[in-house]
Design brief:
Blueprint lengths: L1 H26 L4 H29 L1
């Protein structure tokens, strides 16, 4: 009975600090820019950058 009581308050206590932490992180531009940059850079510089990069050296040689 004591364990569920300690776990119940632990859930709301952890949810409270997690909510404010996510808010400042998203507003501080540390998570949003990282997701956009890592999602746009790898996709754009991976497919289009590899294709023209391989075609250029191939045509040059």
């Amino acid at each position: 009975m004591k364990r569920p009581e300690g776990r119940r308050p632990a859930s709301p206590v952890r949810s409270e600090p997690r909510e404010p932490e996510r808010a400042p992180e998203s507003g501080g531009e540390p998570t949003e820019p990282i997701r956009i940059v890592s999602a746009v850079r790898p996709e754009r510089s991976s497919a289009p950058a590899d294709e023209p990069s391989t075609e250029r050296p191939s045509s040059a040689s």
